[in-house]
Design a protein that fits this description.
- The protein is α+β, with helices and mostly antiparallel strands and 118 residues long.
- It has two helices and four strands.
- The protein has a four-stranded mixed sheet, with no helix packed on it.
- The protein is globular and about 45 Å long.
Length: 118
């Protein structure tokens, strides 16, 4: 099952059209990925957002693990993996590399507590 229900090219093109119309606005997207640890899902994610013009991409349910591919060209990534057996969970925030950013605090990834990146 694809990460995004629409055709990747259509979604990527639509995002670029929207962001191009608002050059002075901060463009923020949130997705519930249900696993970017999967290579196919991450490839779709990368293709959709790499040249989208979106400034901040917040992702819940990343399912990232220690060996997950997480880099997205032109973005800095801040993430917390869930540290419990069975995996799942996890959050990430991708911020355009032309926006100064700094992590203030993160959760520790314990399964009974909310995961966050500030």
């Amino acid at each position: 099952m694809p990460l995004f229900s629409q055709n990747d090219n259509l979604l990527s093109h639509s995002l670029k059209n929207i962001t191009d119309k608002h050059p002075l606005s901060l463009k923020v997207v949130h997705i519930n990925a249900q696993s970017l640890h999967n290579d196919v899902h991450f490839s779709e994610f990368r293709h959709t957002f790499c040249n989208s013009g979106v400034d901040v991409i917040a992702v819940s349910e990343t399912f990232f693990e220690g060996n997950s591919q997480i880099a997205l060209p032109k973005y800095n990534v801040f993430h917390v993996n869930r540290n419990s057996p069975g995996g799942g969970g996890g959050v990430a925030v991708y911020v355009s590399d032309n926006i100064p950013t700094k992590t203030l605090c993160t959760s520790d990834g314990e399964s009974k507590l909310p995961e966050y990146v500030i």
